[in-house]
Amino acid sequence: GLLHLHNLLRWVILVLIIIAIFRHLAGMNSKRPVNAGDKKIDLFLMIAAHITLLIGLYQWFAGDFGLKMIQAAGMGEVMKNGAVRKLAIEHPVGMIIAIVLITVGRGAVKRATSPAVHKKAFWCFLIALIVMLATIPWSRPLFPGMQ
Tell me: the pLDDT tens digits for 110-120? Predict the structure, then answer.
């Protein structure tokens, strides 16, 4: 069930981050102050990202595609195999970086009303999206259990 929840939240995060990017881009271009809608989208994005992180960390420590894989095969073997390296190393590290960026972007917007904050949030979220898209294991089913 946790794998399915982790996967479902991936789609929620992708939708929310795209909405947030476009909202902050529009706010940047129109020089409008940060509003409650911007803050709410950013908050939901951060909550979904943090919940997904906690589920993912649990899966990495307790599941078969993280720590157990590294312990069984050894770090050298994991690093030689691109598919295994993606699941055990690149995906968790990339997602932690993306979630840090999401948190920084949300933190900038949290108490701000200045139009200049849109720029910081926009760049944090855009870079987070790029990192996420680069480190999502796309070779795995898009909707596990629904094939």
Answer: 988 888 999 99
